[in-house]
Amino acid sequence: MIESGRGNPTRRSRLIVLAGPTAVGKGTVAADVRRTHPEVWLSVSATTRPPRPGEENGVHYWFVSDEEFDAMIAKGDLLEWAVVHKAARYGTPRGPVDLALASGHPAMLEIDLQGARQVRETMPDALFVFLKPPSWEELVRRLVGRGTESEAERERRLETARAELAAESEFDVTIVNHEVHAAAEQLVSLMVGSNSSSSD
């Protein structure tokens, strides 16, 4: 457990970047971190896709139009962005990330592989964590079980997932998502260790 939720204004935090294949449970693990460790700051991505049932604007994502997304790119307001699953665009607003790191709080991005690669270019000192399914069969089961995508969309996501799984070696650490809360606790322990050993 992290003993204090207060940031350290004298030292900039090290950013943790969580990525992995579609349907591996990145969002669910991030939600568990948000629920059990309010001292950890989690970035909220912007996306041009419509909300799924139960998703709230500003909590799960910032849901924006294509025109709004274009404006964010033009102004340099995104730390990274990508077209995901050959469909919607996703991106990380830059300003909130800089503020969280400067405050000394543990900070995390939960993004896709393309985004993680862009962040490595601009913030190579971040710790990159790959969230991996226990098996390919389990990944397929989770994706089908969500019931939130059409069959065509599932096929697109599985095609993307095959390529994403092959990128594991690009990451600093791998966590296997056998169980959500256990994976979230492993992730938080990495944040604590990373920030306690980082220097100004």
TrEMBL record:
A Gene Ontology molecular function term of the record: ATP binding
Superkingdom in the source lineage: Bacteria
Chain positions recorded as ATP binding sites: 20-27
Cited InterPro entries: GK/Ca_channel_bsu, Guanylate_kin-like_dom, Guanylate_kinase, Guanylate_kinase_CS, P-loop_NTPase
EC code: 2.7.4.8
Keywords: ATP-binding, Cytoplasm, Kinase, Nucleotide-binding, Transferase
Cellular localisation: Cytoplasm
Domain (Guanylate kinase-like): residue spans on this chain: 13-192
Catalytic activity: GMP + ATP = GDP + ADP
Cellular component annotations (GO), alphabetically ordered: cytosol
Main location per the UniProt record: cytoplasm
Keyword Kinase tagged: yes
Pfam families (alphabetical): Guanylate_kin (PF00625)
TM regions (residue ranges): none
Record's function text: Essential for recycling GMP and indirectly, cGMP.
PANTHER family: GUANYLATE KINASE, GUANYLATE KINASE-RELATED
Xref: HAMAP family: Guanylate_kinase
Family per similarity comment: Belongs to the guanylate kinase family.
Protein name per the record: Guanylate kinase
Species, as recorded: Nocardioides zhouii
